[in-house]
Specification:
Length: about 325
């Protein structure tokens, strides 16, 4: 049984689909603060399998402990948290409470239930301002905003925990820019209010919910002047979690791995690709640079490749289950 915090959210819902498809049983623990229970019904429709659902908050120790015990969890994938950079600057305490205190409470509950396997959603944001590119896992770490600081703090907490007890199995996954949606069209990203991130904004322009996209800056030192990022498809990202679980099953460890493609695309590349996919023009205008943005960055995905993640993620159970 895999216990998925934040399983109704964007990345969590796609990961639940892949877990169920691979034959795992799944319990979702979510407070639906940034998601809808409908996503869970859609996961069941896609997979034809049932999920166990527990509505609860990771900041609540009693709820968590009961949920972990009754579900019979063997491992946790921990997506629950808040993720808007701008909001984290306005409401730092709310971010520390959800992301740091929430994770601390989760780890304490896990320890008391002797569940010692966790995969944690970290972010490329922990690399801060690039000192070299592509970012390897060994790149120095720093935070340029409160959201990033909460991820960095949780990473350190996990490493300290492992140092104190080397029977833990901990996977820290540093996501680059997750994009896309499940091929069924039944689940996807559903941001509340004005999307902060590029792809949901582009998608809303395409369906007519927004008039045009603001391209934040066209004077960067990049091939077309717009920002370059490493966009990874959300289903590939989801499969990365299964590969991480398999690797942790093999032996206790605390591993940190980039999940990106190693290829950078500009804002205009992404707009053109979306136009091709939906067959409609995407209106945009160039606007001044967004505060805090970096011109260009991408992952060094070698470590994940060396771990033969491609093989493992496409064949999570080896040859025993065919897709
Ligand atoms: P999301 O907001 O779609 O999903 C998060 C889920 O957690 C939601 O269902 C929300 O209701 C739930 N949640 C939040 N606080 C909770 C709490 N206190 N108790 C219980 N449930 C709670 O976000 P996502 O894009 O799926 O991101 C998942 C994780 O990955 C987050 O930790 C995020 O910081 C991290 N991450 C996301 C991105 C990205 O671009 N989407 C990039 C890097 C890292
Ligand atoms: C942002 C966060 C980062 C987080 C990541 C994934 C900031 C500063 N960084 O990264 O911490 O880990 O999301 O959630 O918020 N763009 C436009 N117009 C838009 C939106 C974006 O031109 O309306 C451009 C940006 O300037 C950037 C690129 O598109 O060049 C990607 O932006 P975005 O999707 O917000 O992700 P990041 O800024 O890379």
């Amino acid at each position: 049984m895999i216990f998925v915090t934040g399983g109704a959210g964007y990345i969590g819902s796609h990961t639940c689909v892949e877990l169920l498809n691979a034959g795992h049983q799944v319990t979702v623990f979510d407070n639906f603060s940034n998601s809808q229970p409908e996503a869970l019904r859609r996961i069941e429709r896609i997979t034809g399998k049932q999920l166990q659902v527990i509505e609860g908050d990771i900041r609540n120790p009693a709820e968590l402990k009961t949920a972990l015990q009754t579900s019979g969890a063997q491992a946790v994938i921990h997506f629950a948290g808040l993720k808007a950079v701008g909001e984290s600057e306005q409401q730092p305490l709310r971010y520390y409470e959800n992301n740091v205190q929430g994770t601390l409470t989760l780890l304490q509950a896990m320890q008391s239930c002797a569940v010692k396997t966790i995969v944690f959603s970290s972010s490329a944001t922990v690399y801060g301002i690039p000192q070299f590119l592509p970012y390897t896992e060994a790149h120095p770490l720093s935070a340029t905003n409160t959201y990033g600081q909460t991820k960095l703090t949780v990473e350190r907490m996990l490493q300290d925990l492992y140092r104190s007890d080397a029977t833990w199995r901990i996977g820290i996954l540093r996501y680059f820019n997750p994009v896309g949606a499940h091929a069924s069209g039944l689940i996807g990203e559903d941001p509340q209010g004005l999307p902060n991130n590029l792809m949901p904004f582009v998608a809303q322009v395409a369906v007519g919910r927004r008039e045009f996209l603001n391209v934040w800056g066209n004077d960067y030192d990049t091939p077309d002047g717009t920002g370059v990022r490493d966009y990874i498809h959300v289903v590939d990202l989801a499969l990365g979690h299964l590969a991480a679980l398999n690797r942790l099953q093999a032996q206790p460890q605390c591993m940190t791995v980039n999940l990106g493609t190693g290829i950078g695309y500009s804002v205009l590349d992404m707009v053109r690709a979306f136009e091709q996919a939906c067959g409609k023009p995407i209106a945009f205008q160039f606007s001044p640079r967004r505060a805090g943005d970096i011109a260009s960055y991408c992952a060094d995905p070698k470590l994940a490749a060396e771990h033969t993640w491609r093989w493992q993620s496409q064949n999570p159970q080896g040859y025993s289950i065919s897709h």
